[in-house]
Design brief:
homodimer, mainly alpha, MgtE N-terminal fold, Tetracycline Repressor, domain 2, 3 domains, 3-stranded mixed sheet, 6 strands
């Protein structure tokens, strides 16, 4: 497809391009324009019919939106900024430098400027920042035919018309009526009698992950957003929530892998950016790991007496780390999806203790055999076996407990994942190992 | 709310319960019923109006659906099974034992039974299994007023009426028209002229994560599913896709933490289930880790000559493991979200090499200082420093490369995460460490 368009561009067959593009989904047009050589991008964009153009623009990645705006004439920029959906515009403004935002705000019509100002006033990652102000407003005393007439007139400007929101004169949200029930009702029925008055909504300061979980819970296509005085100020639509879920999961996964998350794409990051998002974590962890060095120096006499003990250090700490990582992973995810509720925590910790112990016993036997096979020293292999058993049990409990504790102290549980747990389990594991060794091998 | 209902139940105030429930969202009614004492659950369920009852039933968790069906009378079961949305019914049947499914299939009307048989015929986790057959069908030659009339009649039975699908006499999907464009068009306009003919759809055998990514890409509320002959057989709606995204992310996160994923809830798992989902991974990893034991025995002369070298083994392998985990996490997530495209892989590997080297240099210096502080032996600390630098660089490249290789060989990249990478990096790290030690400390 790209190739055809490129060929047409080189032959300057603009009307053919127009005809080809006309059939396509705005998202596909965006993708094609992005992959064209930069001197052609503006040309193709300008060939788009005006209503399609804004839609295509909204589908570009933010950095590309920036670049394109810079290359367009000022009346074109004015057109785009005024026509964009308020929520997509907020997303763009969020990423732009303050001086550019001010310049662009000045280009907006007064009403749009007011909307943009308001939306930017909400905190990042809250419902207020996600919402659009283009929702379908209906009056309680409308008949169904009046409602349909309103929809017919206002639909082109609205992001979704699947729900109509019924608001009182002081803009309080009184009820909601679905397009489905509008279309299946009689023309003379009254909106106020058909609407649902127990509306599921969120407040402007709700966190985006809360919004996502409410919408997923109730299978909503759109959710109304009210301010602190219960006045309807916007709606959030299903497509934004898909992005939020993916974004939140990415954030959790990154945190679990001890990397600072970023919403910029991997390709856009400079090498220095990549170093920065990893460095502080690695330093924190290396400082924690230095405790294990100190522990080993404490036991250096034991180590010099039985050098064979050192052979099993990686085996022991890896196995402990892996068991801890497993438990932490299960717990963190169950906390994130809301599956693990407060009242069940002790039950889960108890279960993890027992299954950790069973796993520890099995792996301990396996480890002891391995150790005997390598060292041929019975007492060393018993030490290794018992230590693995203890460490796996402890690691399973620690991996379950620490994410729960983190949540209790308002930290993100995802911090308490593999890398962190591994380092903590190391310290505990090494002390266990050498104390057991001293006892079994009778070293003082 | 639960408390009130419980009180009313105890006082047998059934009409009050009916009135209270009437105001509530089906999802909330489901939640309340689930938390009631089991002898009350059936009673409240039977108080629901018939159309609400099915909706409430669909919102129960699958294990609860099973239990409830067992406790209901056979005509009630017949009612529910025939009225349920086909996709929710498939989800239930998937989890039931074969003999129960056969019994339930026999209770279905012939047409519903045919639908249920068909849906169960598709592979798990494919579009065919996810879809519902209740979609809105329109004819190409319908006028808008005929279309609206069709919608009015059929809407109550349809999962979504936001799109109408236009199909040919041989059931091929010819076009799609949104409810928005139906409602904004004139009564005499013809569907065939308004519909969009380049329909975005998926095939029945498309994997659910592909479906999710297409729907997210195009911001769709519903997507049509066609069979291998391009005949329309069903649609998948936005709410199912939210579940798919969460499910897929959970699967990835579990795999990254070296646990076998399960769709059963944490509380439903027995201790033996918890052991099973972790055991094979731990055994695999402990066997891999035994290589590090062998490496250490190979270098036992070096170790006995300079015992201090053993102090830094945990520090070294933890740091290597952490760096590898970071790179693997970033790569795996970028592959999962589709952010990391084939053509950019070498560029990313190159970048990771350079940022790994920079991180390695910084951490190497830090590690060398720590080692000098602990051991007071300059040559040992130089060995530690250089080894950390080499290991961090190698780990960063390995962590980036292995998930990409896994994908190339049709494995899930998420396997190549923290635990696996750590164990591999250990082996490489220990060899590096002792070879450098031999060189610098001049030991043979």
């Amino acid at each position: 497809m790209n190739k055809d368009i490129l060929e047409m561009l080189e032959k300057k067959q603009f009307s053919e391009i127009k005809a080809t593009i006309k059939q396509m989904h705005p998202q596909d047009i965006s993708s094609i324009i992005t992959t064209l050589p930069s001197h052609f991008q503006g040309i193709v964009y300008r060939l788009l019919p005006k209503d399609v153009a804004v839609n295509v623009f909204e589908n570009f990645e933010i950095p590309f939106q920036e670049t394109l705006l810079n290359s367009l004439k000022s009346d074109e920029v004015i057109g785009i900024l005024n026509e964009m959906a308020p929520d997509d515009r907020t997303r763009l403004f969020e990423e732009l430098p303050a001086n550019i935002v001010l310049k662009y705000l000045a280009l907006l019509d007064e009403s749009e400027r007011k909307i943009a100002y308001n939306l930017l006033g909400y905190n990042e990652d809250t419902a207020g920042r996600l919402m659009t102000t283009d929702f379908l407003e209906l009056q309680e005393n409308f008949t169904i035919s009046q409602a349909i007439e309103t929809i017919r007139i206002t639909a082109p400007k609205k992001e979704t018309i699947y729900y109509g929101y019924v608001i009182s004169p002081d803009r309080k949200l009184n009820g909601v009526i679905s397009l489905k029930s509008i279309i299946t009702s009689e023309p003379d029925d009254v909106v106020g009698e058909l609407m649902n008055t127990s509306v599921i909504c969120v407040q402007t300061d709700a966190l985006q992950e809360e919004v996502a979980s409410v919408m997923a819970h109730y299978d909503l296509v759109a959710i109304p957003v009210v301010d602190l005085e219960d006045r309807l100020v916007g709606i959030i639509t299903h497509d934004d929530i898909l992005d939020v879920i993916t974004e939140e999961d990415t954030e959790d996964i990154h945190l679990m892998g001890a990397v600072t998350t970023t919403d910029r794409s991997l390709l856009d990051l400079t090498i220095w950016d990549s170093v920065k998002r990893r460095l502080s974590w690695l330093i924190l962890l290396i400082v924690l790991a230095s405790f294990s060095t100190n522990i080993l120096t404490m036991y250096q006499d034991v180590l010099s007496t039985v050098v064979a003990l050192s052979f099993f250090i990686p085996l022991l700490i890896d196995t402990g780390g892996n068991a801890g990582t497993q438990s932490a992973t299960i717990t963190i995810r169950a906390l994130a999806t809301g599956e693990l509720k407060k009242q069940h925590r002790w039950e889960i910790i108890g279960k993890e203790f027992v299954s950790g112990l069973i796993l520890g016993l099995m792996l301990g036997v396996l480890g002891a055999f391995q150790a005997y096979f390598t060292s041929q020293i019975l007492l060393v292999s018993i030490t290794v076996g018992i230590s693995i058993c203890v460490v796996v049990t402890l690691a399973s409990v620690t991996g379950t407990l620490l994410p729960m504790l983190a949540e209790r102290f308002k930290l993100d549980p995802a911090v308490m994942a593999g890398p962190f747990i591994t380092t903590i389990v190391d310290i505990v594991g090494l002390i266990t190992y050498f104390e057991i060794a001293k006892l079994i091998l009778r070293i003082n």
